[in-house]
Amino acid sequence: MDLGIAGKRALVCASSKGLGRGCAEALAQAGVELVMNARGAEALEATAQEIRDTYGVKVTTVAADIVSEEGRAKVLEVAGDVDILVTNAGGPPPGLWSDWGRDEFLAALDANMLTPIALMTELMPKMAAKGWGRVVNITSQSVKAPIPQLGLSNAARTGLTGYVAGTARQVAPEGVIVNNLLPGIHATDRAISLDTGVADAQGISIEEAADQRAATIPARRYGTRQEFGAMCAFLCSQHAGFIVGQNILLDGGATNATL
After folding, report:
1. pTM of the complete model
2. What are the φ/ψ torsions at residue 159 (nearest 5 degrees)?
3. Cα–Cα distance between 82 and 107 in angstroms, integer?
4. Best CA proximity match to 187, nearest among 228, 134, 236, 238
5. Are 183 and 19 in contact (CB under 8 A)?
6. Looking at the chain, which residues constitute the CATH 3.40.50.720 domain(s)?
7. 143 in helix, strand or coil?
8. SS3 118
9. Which residue in 102, 119, 241, 246 is deepest, having the highest Cβ count within 10 Å?
């Protein structure tokens, strides 16, 4: 399917690896020029070069911490008036409710709620001025069904979801389409981290922990960055203009809900 976005420009955050990389690759395959951001310069440039070599699109890299004001300003200066924004940031650490105080919650809110909002606030007016734009926020399946040990993520990402619910409907008349993608477990570094925690707690191997988790998913496997990226690219396409303010699960059926 031709997504109709060849020649557009996209800012993809945290895109040197994992789900962000999957989104960057899928957009590049559709002919989109990229501004890629991550904290680690070496991994970021290596991924960017692979994408240039594979898809032949222009890729600009900005190594910076998107959560910091200084890093965000650096990224936004390079991004300019991009047509597409994909927000993404690593999730806060797991734990118990009694582990977290004000500082931990503020850090989670900064990374997983306030940073995406700041990026949208800066870039959506430029999209609206052109009469076309796409925003995809990578959140989590936990906004549909909370994950007990991920209380920081549950709280921050649900806050972003509430913000998007109203904002998406305000900017849609100007051609700016905003939606959220809610990943379940995918074969990324985040999965390795979570499985390592389970393995250590239960005294089993990481492979056994992964198999144990996969058995709870109706699809009986982890997702891939490629299939996640394909959905992201579709939401950024010319075909997605009637999908407004939605929360789309990609979790292999793990969230047991009718709606």
Report:
1. 0.95
2. -60, -45
3. 27
4. 228
5. yes
6. 9-184+225-247
7. helix
8. helix
9. 119
Pull the structure tokens for residue 126. Answer: 């430029």
Separation between Cα atoms, residue 102 and residue 194, nearest integer Å: 24
Tell me if 225 sits within 8 A of 26, measured CB to CB. no
Per-residue pLDDT at 92 exceeds 90: no
| Residue 8 token pair | 């557009």
pLDDT higher than threshold 90 for residue 169: yes
Assess if CATH 2.102.10.10 describes domain 9-184+225-247: no
Percentage, residues of the chain above pLDDT 90? 88
The number of helix segments (H) and strand segments (E) in the chain equals: 9, 7
Determine the Cα–Cα distance for residues 147 and 11; give it in Å rounded to an integer.
29
Which stretch of 19-28, 69-78, 203-212, 235-244 has the lowest confidence by average pLDDT? 203-212
Q: Residue 63 has what DSSP assignment?
A: E
Q: Is 111 helix (H, G, I), strand (E, B) or coil?
A: helix
* H or E stretch covering 50: helix 41-55
Q: Average pLDDT for residues 150-168, to the nearest whole number?
A: 96
Q: Which amino acid is at 169?
A: R
- Region of 180 (left: φ > 0; alpha: ψ -120 to 50; beta: rest) is beta
Q: Smallest Cα–Cα separation from 193: which of 149, 133, 163?
A: 149
Instruction: Give phi and psi for 203, each to the nearest 5.
Output: 70, 35
Whole-angstrom Cα distance, residue 171 to residue 256?
Answer: 32
Contact criterion met (CB below 8 Å) for 15 and 187: no
